[in-house]
């Protein structure tokens, strides 16, 4: 890639989710050195695990964001307060746009020997963040061959193909499968910043290894990046124009002010109609944590 762009290696931190089994995920965003990549503001990477029930997260609310669920192995049932009930398999996208408010649960199924994937959040710009919630399942996403690599485009446009998924700011999300020993040149949009996550296996760029679970961040300005896979690798490429708005992320909410977050929390705790009701096989809901004693600030 062009030399003026900065690179940053993001090591994941381990976070326990509020699940029955206390499933641990590897979180690369938000990171102490980086809050967002374009509108991408949350990257949780989980598995592989033979405990295929591990990703069972009971009903919880969201606001001001889209959630994108993407699996490498296994399957998960999504239920939400719109009445959507959808099983997702590898290579498919579950895209939930929370807008002003939605609630959902995700229950992994026992029909596979292993479970792994990513859960991604995309911040909604101020102009649309109060939109009505939607949920769309995309089972037929465009695929493109890039030399020896196969790319499946789940958000935005990449290498001449475009995902049908609705985006609200300029961004891209791609799954790249690269075989051991292959090197590829990934074209970049110069106005985008990028993160490349080693989601399965590992890869290297300019002599630097990006180990399983790590992400390399690229500032805007690069026109391409060459990577080599020393073993079979799945790379999640996330890119977007720098977001340009300050956001306030707290628990499962994205707002702009402390008061807004307080209100969202009260709405969930009082089971108000804003977040609706999730009908699933668990029949549980995750309570919001207590508000911190400090004033939350958009950053
Ligand atoms: Mn969620």
Structural class: mainly beta
Overall CATH class: Mainly Beta
CATH homologous superfamily designation: Jelly Rolls
Q: What small molecules does the structure contain?
A: manganese (II) ion
What is the CATH architecture annotation? Sandwich
Mean pLDDT, to the nearest integer, reads 94
What's the SSE pattern?
EEEEEEEEEEEEEEEEEEEEEEEEEEH
How far do the termini sit from each other? 30 Å
Q: Strands of the largest sheet, in order across it?
A: 1-22-19-24-17-14-13
List how many beta strands DSSP finds. Answer: 26
Report low-confidence residues grouped into runs of 5 or more. Answer: none
CA gyration radius, whole angstroms: 18 Å
Amount of beta strand: over 45%
Quick summary:
The chain is mainly β. Helices cover 4% and strands 46% of the residues.
Describe the structure in your own words.
- The chain has 299 residues and is mainly beta.
- The protein has a single domain, classed as Jelly Rolls.
- It contains one helix and 26 strands.
- The strands form seven sheets. It has a seven-stranded antiparallel beta sheet with strand order 1-22-19-24-17-14-13, with no helix packed on it. Strands 2-3-4-11-6-9-12 form a seven-stranded antiparallel beta sheet, with no helix packed on it.
- The radius of gyration is 18 Å and the shape is globular.
- 46% of the residues are buried.
- The model has no long low-confidence stretch (mean pLDDT 94).
- Bound molecules: manganese (II) ion.
- Manganese (II) ion binds at residues 60, 62, 67, 104, 252.
């Amino acid at each position: 890639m062009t030399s003026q762009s900065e690179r940053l290696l993001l090591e994941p931190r381990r976070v326990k989710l509020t699940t029955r089994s206390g499933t641990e995920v590897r979180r690369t965003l938000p990171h102490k050195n980086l809050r967002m990549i374009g509108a991408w503001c949350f990257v949780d990477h989980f598995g592989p695990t033979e405990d295929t029930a591990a990703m069972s997260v009971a009903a919880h609310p969201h606001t001001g964001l889209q959630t994108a669920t993407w699996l490498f192995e296994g399957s998960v049932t999504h239920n939400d307060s719109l009445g959507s009930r959808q099983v997702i398999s590898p290579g498919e996208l579950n895209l939930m746009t929370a807008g002003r408010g939605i609630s959902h649960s995700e229950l992994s199924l026992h029909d596979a020997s292993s479970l792994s994937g990513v859960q991604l959040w995309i911040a909604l710009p101020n102009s649309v963040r109060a939109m009505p919630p939607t949920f769309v399942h995309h089972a037929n996403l465009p695929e493109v061959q890039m030399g020896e690599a196969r790319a499946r485009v789940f958000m935005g446009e990449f290498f001449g193909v475009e995902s049908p998924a609705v985006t609200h700011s300029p961004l891209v999300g791609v799954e790249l499968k690269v075989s051991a020993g292959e090197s590829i040149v990934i074209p970049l949009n110069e106005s985008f910043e990028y993160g490349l996550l080693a989601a399965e296996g590992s890869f290297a760029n300019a002599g630097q290894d990006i180990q399983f679970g790590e992400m390399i961040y690229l500032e805007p300005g690069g026109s391409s990046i060459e990577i080599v896979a020393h073993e079979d690798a799945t790379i999640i490429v996330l890119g977007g124009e720098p977001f340009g708005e300050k956001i306030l992320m707290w628990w499962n909410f994205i707002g702009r002010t402390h008061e807004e977050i307080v209100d969202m929390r009260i709405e969930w705790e009082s089971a108000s109609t804003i977040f609706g009701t999730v009908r699933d096989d668990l029949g549980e809901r995750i309570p919001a944590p207590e508000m911190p004693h400090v004033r939350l600030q958009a950053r």
